[in-house]
């Protein structure tokens, strides 16, 4: 009989070689708990229409987006679960203007940055949505709250959960990117995609092309290039876009190609990005680089961006190394 696949908690102990350190125990505790929250969110999503959980609550969140009932529920569920770990100093969430502070102190406490239900505009059409998370070191507190800002390279771990036909959790602690599929009968995430490697070049690109008028000229020229037939070079690329970053990044990790959300350059003096750095762009960039891919804004490496605000926004072009390099070359022209 074939060996049964490793569970997420078993895998966490192999990744955190010595669980004897407090730091490693905290990381494993927080990631394990996020896995359990994800199993609960998957259940809730499956029953949302039946429990009158779809639709808006009214009002906007810290980023100015309309808030859905499941956004609020996902945030509250994440807060209580992380609080229970005793390893988390704060949660920076899309759904709260300020960090939600928790009891854990000490040098090894972690700050979690998360978008508990990302892509929530897909909820009402039964489309894929996700959870995105990142663990950063807590550097003590200032009067404004826990200090967890800084470079993307400061991230200790990052990952996402995709709620599709099956729920999948993908994470990295800086030792490769690994994917797990939820076994609904046990509520366990089981290792199905060890050491994911993104192809060096792909055949698809994902972008909201309705925004073409506001792109940087390099971005416009690059997408034009992707659409221009050249059989030998594998073009034209096909367009794939779901409106949920998790689903688009997941496809890109498995099949290669690109996921892009470039900034609005209508005012070249003040380019405006949409996606949030701490809990969308930086974690996905770490996941992608750890799978052998590349993540850039077109002008610089995403993981070198320094977060100075909790809900800061950043442009992103991520995916297959050769494809992202070509995008960067178009921006430099
Ligand atoms: P929502 O959570 O408001 O649906 O936003 C999802 C998201 O942050 C990200 O998951 C998508 O890639 C992106 O926005 C889609 O944005 P557009 O609707 O502007 O294409």
The low-confidence parts are none
Shape: globular
Number of helices: 7
What are the bound molecules?
1,6-di-O-phosphono-alpha-D-fructofuranose
Structural class by helix and strand composition: alpha+beta
Oligomer: single chain
Sheet of most strands: 8 strands, mixed
> Widest sheet: strand order?
4-3-5-6-10-11-12-13
Mean pLDDT, nearest integer?
92
Proportion of strand residues:
15-25%
Could you tell me how far the N terminus lies from the C terminus, measured between alpha carbons in angstroms?
57 Å
Q: How many runs of DSSP E, i.e. beta strands?
A: 19
Helix content: 25-40%
| SSE order, one letter for each helix or strand | HHEEHEEEEEEEEEEEEHEHEHEEEH
For the CA atoms, what is the radius of gyration? 19 Å
In short:
The chain has about 325 residues and is an alpha+beta fold.
Distinctive features:
7 helices; 333 residues; alpha+beta; five-stranded mixed beta sheet; eight-stranded mixed beta sheet; binds 1,6-di-O-phosphono-alpha-D-fructofuranose
Structural overview:
The protein is α+β, with helices and mostly antiparallel strands. The chain contains 7 helices and 19 strands. The chain starts with 7 loop residues before the first helix and ends with a helix. The model has no long low-confidence stretch (mean pLDDT 92). Residues 65, 118-121, 208, 243-245, 261, 274-275 line the site of 1,6-di-O-phosphono-alpha-D-fructofuranose.
């Amino acid at each position: 009989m074939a060996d049964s696949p490793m569970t997420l908690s078993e895998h966490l102990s192999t990744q955190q070689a010595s669980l004897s350190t407090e730091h490693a125990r905290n990381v494993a505790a927080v990631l394990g708990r996020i896995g359990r929250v994800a199993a609960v969110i998957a259940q809730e999503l499956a029953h949302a229409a039946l429990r009158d959980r779809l639709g808006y609550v009214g009002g906007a969140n810290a980023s100015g987006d309309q808030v859905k009932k499941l956004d609020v529920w996902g945030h509250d569920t994440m807060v209580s679960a992380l609080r229970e770990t005793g390893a988390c100093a704060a949660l920076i969430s899309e759904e709260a203007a300020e960090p939600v502070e928790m009891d854990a102190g000490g040098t090894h406490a972690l700050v979690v940055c998360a978008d508990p239900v990302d892509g929530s505009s897909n909820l009402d059409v039964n489309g894929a949505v996700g959870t995105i998370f990142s663990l950063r070191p807590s550097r003590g507190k200032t009067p404004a709250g826990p200090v967890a800002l800084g470079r993307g390279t400061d991230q200790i771990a990052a990952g996402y959960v995709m709620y599709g036909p099956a729920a999948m959790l993908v994470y990295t602690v800086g030792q490769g990117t690994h994917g797990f599929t939820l076994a609904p009968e046990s509520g366990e995430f089981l290792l199905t995609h060890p050491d994911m490697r993104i192809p060096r070049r792909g055949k698809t690109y994902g972008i909201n092309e309705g925004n073409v008028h506001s792109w940087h000229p390099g971005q416009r020229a690059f997408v034009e290039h992707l659409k221009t037939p050249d059989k030998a070079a594998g073009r034209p690329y096909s367009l794939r876009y779901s409106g949920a970053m998790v689903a688009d990044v997941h496809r890109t990790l498995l099949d290669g190609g690109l996921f892009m959300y470039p900034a609005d350059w209508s005012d070249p003096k003040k380019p405006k990005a949409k996606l949030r750095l701490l809990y969308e762009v930086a974690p996905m960039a770490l996941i992608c680089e750890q799978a052998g891919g590349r993540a850039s804004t077109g002008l610089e490496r995403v993981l070198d961006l320094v977060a100075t605000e909790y809900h800061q926004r950043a442009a992103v072009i991520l995916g297959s190394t050769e494809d992202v390099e070509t995008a960067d070359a178009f921006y430099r022209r």
